[in-house]
Amino acid sequence: MPILTLQNISKRYGAVQALAGVSFEVPAGSVFGILGPNGSGKTTLLGIVTDVLKADTGHFTLFDKTPTARERRKIGTLLETPNFYHYLSGYKNLEISAAVKQRGKDDIARVLDICGLTQRQHSAFKTYSLGMKQRLAIAAVLLGDPEVLILDEPTNGLDPAGIAEVRDLVRRLAGTGKTIILASHLLDEVEKVCTHVAILRKGNLLLSGAVNEVISRNDYIEIAAADNHALRLALLQYPGCTNAELNGGLLKVMFAAQPDAAAINNYCAQQGIWLSHLQLRKKSLETAFLEITNTPVQ
Amino acid sequence: MKQIIYTEWLKVKNYRTFWAMLLLALIIIPAGNFMVADKFTENLQQLSKLVGNPFSFPDVWLTMASINSYISALFGLLLIILVTNEYTYRTNRQNIIDGWERKHFVYAKLFWLVLLALLTLVVATISAALVGVIYGNKPVSFEGYEYMLYYFLQLVVMLTIALLIGVLVKRAGLAIVLFVAYNMMLDQLLTFLLKRYIGAAGGLLPLQSGDELLPFPLVGKMVTTSDHYDTYVYILAMLCYIILGIFLVFRKILKSDL
């Protein structure tokens, strides 16, 4: 059963087309990254899913049902900014979250502990630092241990230690089989955890699906020899080699398929080139992402 | 609904501004009632021999309702603050995200509207009854209590206007300015102009409809104005404004982006 199915969602703000006919599906148990540069429509999309924004056209389902508040109560959501009553303490704010979610108060202590706010739980929200506010928002998401989480830029405002903690948390939650929808423009945030992605640019869905299927991230090799120019010419003759470019003292060589380091080593030796460096590398999601988002929309 | 009221209670339970304003708004009623009763009894004893004691039953209900209709704006401000706070803190979004239907948000604020109006009616009733007992010279009677109900209706109209302004304007400062301007001046000004150029219909503006039913006690008795509709017309007008206002609030919250 898909957790979320979007069909042809469009939304316009005046002259700006925030979303243009976006459709995709979030399978249960996936960690689904919604990627895109700032202003690409990520938050608008999640705003529509959580009913704070109205789509102009299209429709969507949650848990295969027409979405109502009942479905939203099963989802922990952090959308855009932490929204809390400034005059109330962290604890009292979570009491309100729990009441709206129709869950008991007994989970509050646990989520405060996970987010490292136990010490400051009785201080007013307005006295919190940006990072603490974000932590409280994450605590509210975790309240009641929901099966589905929607996290929109969850590491906003956090310090490096906080960012690492949140990543670790997402990874742990994903490990327990929860479905996580993660919107971010920080690719390394998504890189290690996402099983699926949807990439948006200016409101258009560029692609979506399982990470390995939709983003070609073939390995490439970094290679070097005494004469890198000769090496480059030799490798361009190598079957399956698509490109070889000199990058500093190293040659970066791409292949149409998965390269075999031993075979390349052997090939170079046969050409009389002795390698001083040979390393197999994975193309980063960032590189793949930039390649995709820099292609003009058809 | 119980869940909604409980959530609203959690929102205000530790909110000092709310309690301070509520207390002030409620104290103003008996304070105003007693002040007027005291001053009047002291200074105008001669006049009261002519026109009767406005603080005796049954006249005290009209007298107090009429006075109260001038000093109830604080409840509107209180409601505006409760509404615009949600927009300031963006908790109106968070409540929906976390599991309210949009209509629940409207119910929550209508709950405050009804509660504030009822609370005011209770306090105003007790206060007027006490004035009647202390400053009047006739036995307690509920004859003429309908004026208190007109006051209640006018209060609901005023709170509906406050709610509507809060929902449409979203920002506390501007909403308060607009509300106060309408409440203290615009409604009267428009009434004055309409009455002058059109006639009795000028008395059918939202707040004026209530005022028409709550004439200032002594003056109202002496001056019989011909351009005046029957009571039910004003009541109907007020009910229409309440329904229209609440309809617009629902429409705004249900249809627009939050």
UniProtKB/TrEMBL annotation, chain A:
Indicate what this protein is called per its UniProt record.
ATP-binding cassette domain-containing protein
What's this protein's family per the entry? Belongs to the ABC transporter superfamily.
Asked if the Swiss-Prot or TrEMBL record annotates the protein with the keyword ATP-binding, the reply is yes
- Taking every annotated instance into account, which residue ranges of this chain make up the domain ABC transporter? 4-227
Q: Which GO terms describe its molecular function?
A: ATP binding; ATP hydrolysis activity
Annotated PANTHER family: ABC TRANSPORTER, ATP-BINDING PROTEIN
Q: Which organism is it from?
A: Chitinophaga eiseniae
Which UniProt keyword terms apply here?
A: ATP-binding, Nucleotide-binding, Transport
Pfam families named among the record's database cross-references? ABC_tran
Q: Which Gene3D superfamilies match?
A: P-loop containing nucleotide triphosphate hydrolases
From TrEMBL, chain B:
Q: Which UniProt keywords apply?
A: Membrane, Transmembrane, Transmembrane helix
Does the record's keyword annotation contain Transmembrane helix?
Answer: yes
Q: Where are the transmembrane segments?
A: 21-40, 60-83, 110-135, 147-169, 176-198, 231-250
What's this protein's name?
ABC transporter permease subunit
